[in-house]
Design goal:
Distance between the termini: 59 Å
Largest sheet: 5 strands, mixed
CATH topology of the largest domain: Nuclear Transport Factor 2, Chain: A
Strand content: 25-35%
Number of strands: 12
Radius of gyration: 26 Å
């Protein structure tokens, strides 16, 4: 009899365990907020900022429009947003650390466009916006679209060709001669290049430069032989140069922006990046770690940006998303250099410095949803009604 009672008790305990609700909202249904909702716009802005900050190569991406937004409210407060963003590149290199809203958009004939999927956890009460993962697929505008409105416009070419490196070296020589820098700079790598026939062959390049150990007080015959200064000391720069050849002479232009590779964003922009949009700064300072025992454990950001080669096919935002789906089983790989977790409050969310005196938990992250937002406000309005890009947008995509 006693054995029978214990058996019934064990069955009852087992049933109560299996019937328990999932922890931390893991089974909560995904919401479909409006693409123009303030919280969605803020989440998209912060996700794009952190994507740009996480990258070491390429150009700062700016928001073209919000395609889809799914929201997963968290029982531990805050929400996880699953975003699909149409993006275009800007004239700012990512090493400039500039915010995307501060960067000039590229001319239509040299735009690279694409889509990013991003999972970001936001918690305004704790002043946190943490990018969990991201996947971006980019594509240059097909040449046929460029030539349809500008037959004489140059089209981006392979920047590793010898003629473009020579152009960078020639234009940098003009900068070294005219600048008031202490040391000579050498070409690090050419990041963008194109060619056009003007009065003769004209070459246009964008390239990174690095400070060398050779002083400008000395005469240097070959800058390429100068050793670069060590990392953390050497200044890094970004230049735009051109060499136009005619049968009589050669015209060289150069403009460079110099910044340290280790420097953070300018103070004003850094304060803006660390402030939750729409929330006064004094309110953020008042929200201290002692006000709430919740201490979030946030994983390191992982993600990748893939740039497809130029194509003459009709590559739409929708088809780029389809190419991402073929990789949906592929886990994002960590960037080359991952520091503390990007967030609005770095002191509270560094992965390697957890406060063990408080509960350690974190947001529940689901696989990226296959279903797009159900809101009729999505996709949102485009930031620019650009003549070249607009035809490449699919108005009403049906799947992710």
């Amino acid at each position: 009899m006693v054995r029978f009672v214990w058996m019934l008790f064990g069955i009852q305990v087992l049933c109560s365990c299996t019937a328990a609700p999932p922890a931390q909202g893991a089974g909560a249904a995904l919401l479909s907020p409006r693409c123009d909702d303030a919280a969605v716009v803020e989440a998209a802005d912060m996700a794009l900022r952190q994507i740009n900050a996480d990258r070491e190569e390429g150009y700062v991406l700016s928001l073209y429009r919000i395609v889809s937004a799914r929201e997963q409210p968290q029982e531990i407060t805050g929400s996880v947003f699953y975003l699909i963003l149409d993006v275009v590149d800007t004239e700012c290199h990512v090493l400039s650390k500039k915010l995307w809203k501060k960067c000039n958009p590229r001319p239509a004939d040299s735009t690279v466009y694409g889509q990013c999927k991003a999972i970001i956890y936001t918690n305004q009460a704790r002043n946190i916006a943490h990018l969990n993962t991201y996947e971006c697929t980019l594509q240059p505008v097909p040449p046929k679209y460029i030539w349809s409105i500008c037959p004489d416009c140059p089209v981006d070419d392979n920047p590793t060709k010898p003629e473009y490196l020579e152009t960078a070296v020639r234009s940098l020589a003009k900068f070294n001669e005219e600048s008031n820098q202490t040391h000579y700079f050498s070409v690090l790598n050419v990041t963008r290049a194109s060619m056009q026939w003007v009065v003769g062959p004209a070459y246009f390049v964008e390239f990174l430069i690095q400070e060398t150990s050779c002083s400008k007080n000395d005469t240097v015959a070959d800058i390429s032989r100068c050793e670069p200064l060590p990392p953390g000391v050497a200044q890094i720069g970004f230049c735009k140069g051109s060499v136009v050849n005619s049968h009589k002479e050669q015209f060289v232009t150069i403009s460079c922006e110099i910044y340290s590779q280790q420097d953070p964003a300018p103070e004003k922009e850094n304060q803006e990046a660390n402030q939750t949009p729409g929330k006064p700064r004094h309110d953020q300072q008042a929200s201290t770690s002692d006000a709430n025992p919740f201490s979030p454990h946030l994983e390191k950001t992982v993600g990748w940006v893939k740039i497809l080669p130029p194509s003459n096919e009709d590559i739409t935002f929708y088809s780029l998303r389809e190419s991402q789906n073929k990789l949906k089983d592929r886990k994002p790989v960590p960037p080359k250099a991952v520091g503390s977790t990007p967030s609005l409050d770095r002191k509270k969310t560094q992965v390697n410095k957890l406060d063990l005196t408080k509960p350690i938990t974190g947001p529940v992250i689901l696989p990226f949803p296959e279903e797009l937002s159900l809101s009729d406000s999505c996709p949102g309005e485009a930031k620019q009604m650009e003549g070249i890009l607009y035809p490449l947008i699919t108005r009403n995509p049906t799947t992710v």
